[in-house]
Amino acid sequence: MFGCSSFEDFIETTGGSFVTLVHPEDRCRVDKDIRDQISGSPEKLDFVNYRIVRKDGSLRRVEEFGHRVHELDGRTPLPSFPFPPL
């Protein structure tokens, strides 16, 4: 998806953070949409769409379903990727 050759390349390209995956112009809207949706959902579900910037500079549109997960002590863990979205 990002045009990366390895997980390390993906981390270097994206900064390893969900926020930096999202196109800079979409970040505020995506953050607000996620917060609004999970606050109104007992299951803490959200659906957002946004752009990403690939390694080569091209743009792609992404549609994402999410689910906020909390640790037993109430902390919110860092996002994890079940597979690298290279």
Percent of residues in beta strands? 15-25%
Mean pLDDT figure: 80
Number of helices: 3
Please give the alpha-carbon distance between the first and last residues.
5 Å
Low-confidence stretches: 80-84
Strand order of the largest sheet: 1-2
Task: Report the major sheet.
Answer: 2 strands, antiparallel
Number of domains: 1
Radius of gyration: 14 Å
What class, by secondary structure content? alpha+beta
Q: Into which percent range does the helicity of residues fall?
A: 25-40%
Order of helices and strands: HHHEE
Shape: globular
Number of strands: 2
Pfam families: PAS_3
Protein name: PAS fold-3 domain-containing protein
InterPro entries: PAS-like_dom_sf, PAS_fold_3
Output the keywords:
two-stranded antiparallel ribbon; 3 helices; disordered C terminus; PAS_fold_3; alpha+beta; globular; 86 residues; PAS-like_dom_sf; PAS fold-3 domain-containing protein
